[in-house]
Specification:
The complex is a heterodimer of chains A (about 240) and B (about 400).
Chain A (H helix, E strand, L loop, with lengths): L21 H12 L4 H4 L8 H5 L1 H5 L4 H9 L3 H9 L20 H14 L3 H6 L4 H10 L18 H15 L18 H13 L2 H8 L1 H17 L1
Helix pairs in contact in A: 1-6, 1-7, 5-7, 9-13, 12-13
Chain B lengths: L6 H9 L15 H9 L4 E3 L5 E5 L5 E5 L3 E4 L2 H6 L1 H13 L4 E2 L9 H7 L4 H18 L2 E4 L2 H16 L1 H14 L4 E3 L5 H14 L9 E5 L2 H4 L22 H6 L3 E2 L14 H5 L1 H19 L4 E4 L2 H9 L1 H6 L8 E3 H8 L18 H6 L4 H17 L7 H4 L9
Parallel strand pairs in B: 1-7, 4-5, 4-6, 8-9, 8-10, 10-11
Antiparallel strand pairs in B: 2-3
The chains are: A mainly alpha (about 240), B alpha/beta (about 400).
Bound molecules: iron/sulfur cluster (2 copies).
The site of one iron/sulfur cluster has 14 residues of chain A, from helix 3 and helix 5.
């Protein structure tokens, strides 16, 4: 929508997403604001820009933690929708922005906004998380996320020829580690006892985590819940 | 929160100089609340076991760091991609004869779901943390957290648990289902804090002269920016204005620690970025960290104390090299440096072969004949391949190597 004298509002963003009802945007904002962490993360904003100068993401993307803090402080529902539908996924979650002299935590605001975006099943969020299913699968099913077998030469070509050498030797190298809990384990970071995994699956079901996965990736949800249910039934 | 009344005070706050007086801290210390919750019977507060060393945190509070009887909350990124990091931590314990547990009833902290994909919620995060802490408590050992992210994340979750009764009740309900108590340790301790208090012991057993080495330190964001008041600061390190861990240990070993202008910048890891937007990670790690260090102080080594930082700073250098940038500094953790200094085998323990930026010139500068030790390690690998050896064990790795340069 072009800005005219009639709709110009210097304090608020213009409506860049007319296809989404205002009530939907407002609900997302209120859900963020009602999160118990919100009042710890935002106390207002001096507009000093210290967070921007500390922010790694602001150097490489069209992104600003200051804009996020200000939009939240002004309750600028349209701007917040812009942020929640795209910007939040650029944040590196480094928390360099806690240098804020007002004691704000813009990175923390991003964390809440991301959780609201995921819970609400925003299409933009589903798109962003598409390449991410394997990570979620590992951490929820195996009890730890980073496994040596994920370093495939075609996926990590930018790490150079080392990856090829690594990939060819990894199973043997993994046996040549003196730490008992990690020696020889290639599909997880360390051995996790079956009882521990069952406890973890119970946590996912009891805390509503599985419902969150269902919102972002129904196929992944089906896969994970089938395996976990079966394991839990076996006991 | 301290009231700001004058322009000078506001400017001082903005300049972020650290005043080491707990009463002046703008952050709230929740240790008293933990004692109250314990008195009410809401939680079990696990005490730091004796012997411990007390060290000062950012605003002057004393934090107890256990020397031994520790339950090692491992890091998935370390065990999966930089295993010499994990084995060095354990090797150091073994050299000093310290009691520890390497558990298999531990899970990751799920910080990945929190900081990367947000496919999590407060109750799940707090339950995962509490399950790990309850398990450590039941084992009778105190948690020592290897990962900077788990350390920062657990401190955030601990604050949430203290402040939010509804969350506590929900987590207690989940723990009841698991048949476990709700346990919060008196201190959440990062392994680099243990390295910090043990540095004198490492120096006593040092067999490699490191006085010719210049290193830069990358402070890990999730160690000192998340729940910042709990990180360790020391007046002797940058006047108490920057975190002390890592730097203190390097200095104790005689390494020259060089400052560089982008010390506060993150490494570029970014959680989702390292996996699905690595162009950002590579560019940031090369342009804002490695190249700056190289141009300003040209160190022999970068040392850090977190999983993601070692991986990012090490693995990103290949693309920088391919683009003709000024890169090429090996990256190690503080524990790996300490272990190497005490004679840990470069491959059986420090596991240099899992690092991609060329580490050979660094070892050569120390007078360490890496080829000789690589050949020894190849004998292990050949035996494993031939099925005559199941793997490298502590029996192979415990014995320090006498490098003979000191
Ligand atoms: S946490 Fe996000 S917003 Fe804050 S400095 Fe890091 S990248 Fe920027
Ligand atoms: S540093 Fe804090 S006060 Fe300054 S612009 Fe950023 S959020 Fe606002």
């Amino acid at each position: 929508m072009p800005t005219t004298l009639e709709n110009w509002n210097p304090g608020k963003a213009e409506n860049r997403h007319p296809e989404v009802a205002y009530e939907v945007k407002e609900r997302l904002f209120l859900e963020t604001k009602n999160d118990p962490r919100y009042h710890e993360f935002l106390y207002g904003c001096y507009e000093c820009g210290i967070c921007v100068s500390a922010c790694p993401t602001a150097r490489f993307y069209d992104y600003s933690p200051k804009v996020i803090a200000q939009a939240m402080a002004r309750e600028d529902v349209e701007r917040i929708y812009d942020i929640i539908s795209e910007d939040i996924w650029n944040c590196a979650q480094c928390f360099s922005c806690v240098r804020c002299p007002r004691q704000n935590n813009p990175g923390g605001l991003v964390t809440i906004l991301r959780e609201v975006a995921v819970k609400s099943g925003l299409q933009e969020t589903k798109d962003v998380l598409q390449g991410y299913s394997r990570v979620i699968y590992k951490v929820m099913l195996k009890g730890n996320q980073v496994s040596p077998d994920m370093l495939q030469p075609d996926l990590f070509a930018d790490w150079g020829p080392w990856v090829q050498n690594f990939s060819a030797n990894m199973p043997i190298w993994k046996k040549a580690i003196p730490v008992d809990s990690i020696r020889g384990v290639t599909d997880a970071a360390w051995k996790v006892d079956r009882k521990t995994l069952l406890e973890l699956y119970t946590i996912w079901f009891e805390t509503g985590s599985m419902e969150i996965i269902k919102e972002v990736d129904e196929g992944l949800y089906d896969l994970l819940s089938d395996i976990m249910q079966e394991e839990l039934e076996e006991g | 929160m301290t009231e700001l009344t004058t322009v000078e005070e506001i400017l001082e706050r903005k300049s972020h100089s650290v005043r080491r007086d707990p009463k002046l801290a703008h952050t709230h210390d929740m240790h008293e609340s933990l004692l109250e919750l314990e008195a009410k019977g809401e939680i079990i507060l696990q005490r730091v076991p004796e012997p411990f060393v007390e060290v000062t945190t950012k605003y002057g509070r004393l934090k107890k760091i256990p020397v031994e009887h520790t339950w090692h909350h491992k890091s998935c990124g370390q065990c999966g991609h930089i295993p010499g990091y994990t084995s060095s931590i354990f090797w150091l314990h073994r050299q000093l004869g310290l009691d520890y547990v390497d558990p298999t009833d531990q899970t990751s902290c799920t910080g990945w779901n929190y900081y990367a994909s947000a496919t999590s919620n407060m109750a799940a995060q707090a339950s995962v943390m509490s399950r790990n802490f309850a398990t450590a408590y039941e084992t009778g050992y105190f948690p020592l957290i290897h990962c900077g992210t788990s350390f920062g994340h657990y401190k955030e979750v601990r604050e949430q648990l203290v402040q939010d009764k509804e969350l506590r009740d929900e987590v207690r309900r989940v723990m009841d289902k698991l048949g476990k108590p709700l346990v919060i340790p008196e201190e959440i301790v990062h392994y680099s804090e243990w390295v910090h208090i043990m540095r004198g012991k490492f120096a006593e057993r040092q067999v490699v002269d490191l006085s010719g080495i210049t290193a830069t330190v990358h402070p890990a964001c999730h160690y000192y920016k998340v729940v910042a008041e709990d990180a360790i600061y020391d007046p002797d390190i940058y006047g108490g204005q920057r975190m002390a861990t890592v730097t203190t240990m390097l200095k104790a070993l005689g390494i020259n620690v060089a400052d560089y202008s982008t010390w506060f910048d993150c490494c570029g890891f970014g959680f989702r970025h390292i996996l699905v937007e690595r162009d950002f990670t590579r560019s940031f790690a090369v342009q804002r960290k490695i190249e700056v260090m190289k141009n300003e102080v040209n160190p022999d080594l970068v040392v850090t104390h977190d999983t993601g930082c070692v991986t990012t700073l090490d693995k990103s250098q290949f693309s920088g090299k391919a683009h003709g940038r000024n890169v090429g500094i090996p990256v190690l953790s503080d524990a790996q440096v300490a272990a190497l200094a005490m004679g840990a085998h470069p491959f059986r323990v420090v596991q240099f072969h899992w690092h991609s930026t060329d580490w050979r010139p660094f070892l050569e500068k120390l007078g360490i004949d890496w080829q000789k030790y690589w050949d020894e390690f190849q004998v292990d690998l050949d035996a494993i391949r031939a099925g005559t050896k199941s793997g490298v064990t502590w029996a192979d790795a415990d014995q320090p190597v006498v490098y003979g340069n000191k």
